[in-house]
Design brief:
The structure is a single chain. The protein is built from 10 helices and 14 strands. Helix 8 runs parallel beside helix 10. It starts with a strand and ends in an 18-residue tail after the last strand. A 7-stranded mixed sheet has the order 6-5-4-3-2-1-14. It has a 7-stranded mixed sheet with strand order 7-8-9-10-11-12-13. It is of the alpha/beta class. A hairpin with a 2-residue loop joins strand 7 and strand 8. It has one domain: 4-Layer Sandwich (Metallo-beta-lactamase, Chain A).
Length: about 260
């Protein structure tokens, strides 16, 4: 399995997701012979099949919080991953707010359920997943994820507003995926706007920043133009994801082998 980062959708707020103006199937990371499906929102299984992603290859399904755009297709993905519970082989990693709502069917479709909170470190073969802080007032258990792989380090913010600890949480990474819902000049609790991204990137310098999870008002400003403006202000390479975008994460690696804690070695 080649290293790939695949966007099964870039839609964010309820308007975009509800109208399916943009797809909302989440993100798939393939690396180290494993496959991780992050935040399988509406249409996740449909878009996975459209992009020829085999759910049976899922090593783990990860959820950042219990909102429709991030978890609505979990049951469909779990069923496809496990032959409807006949062959459970994957791990579900989710915050407590979601693990408490899992049905018996959901539980039967996975080999293991890991209830994740900020500061946890999860080892899956050659990949370490660090659970990082997210600030989302509507969902106090919300989290983000940092993937420490042998050839690159990647952070996915999940839905979060800017907080000062971000500068520490996100330092020394190769790829940063940010959920950017709000347009310039508009602040909303629990979400980032372009000014927040500029503030963050002035403190950290990842090799690549990928913007996704766009809201309806941001779409009016054109995500590509917003990404270009952030790049000009920070000097950091910033791209706006599109539905179906496929990247090789190694291309944005610093080329240095990452230090890992090997928590399960």
């Amino acid at each position: 399995m080649a290293d790939k980062l695949i966007f099964l959708g870039t839609g964010g707020d309820p308007v975009v997701t509800g109208k399916q103006s943009l797809a909302s199937g989440g993100i798939v990371l393939q690396t180290e012979g494993m496959q991780f499906h992050i935040d399988p929102g509406p249409g996740a299984l449909v878009y996975a099949n459209k992009l020829k992603i085999n759910p049976r290859e899922n090593t783990a399904i990860l959820l950042t919080h219990n909102h429709i755009a991030h978890c609505s297709d979990l049951s469909a993905i779990l069923s496809a991953t496990s032959f409807s519970g006949l062959d459970p082989q994957s791990v579900l990693i989710c915050p407590e707010s979601f693990s408490n709502t899992l049905t018996d069917f959901n539980k039967s479709c996975v080999e293991r359920i890991i209830t994740a909170k900020k500061g946890d470190k999860i080892g899956l073969s050659k990949v370490e997943i660090h659970v990082i802080k997210a600030v989302h007032p509507q969902e106090e258990k919300a989290i983000g994820f940092k993937f420490l792989c042998s050839k690159f380090t990647l952070v996915y913010s999940g839905d979060t507003q800017y907080f000062k600890e971000m500068n520490e949480e996100y330092k020394n990474i190769d790829i940063l995926i940010l959920n950017l819902q709000e347009p310039p000049g508009r602040k909303k609790k629990g979400h980032l706007c372009p000014e927040d991204v500029v503030q963050l990137l002035s403190k950290i310098k990842p090799n690549l920043v990928i913007l996704t999870h766009f809201g309806s008002k941001l779409l009016q400003h054109d995500p590509i133009s917003v990404a270009r403006d952030i790049h000009i202000k920070t000097g950091v390479q910033v791209v706006a994801a599109k539905d179906g975008l496929v990247l090789n994460p190694i291309d944005s690696s610093s080329g240095q082998r990452q230090k890992r804690l090997n928590v399960y070695s």
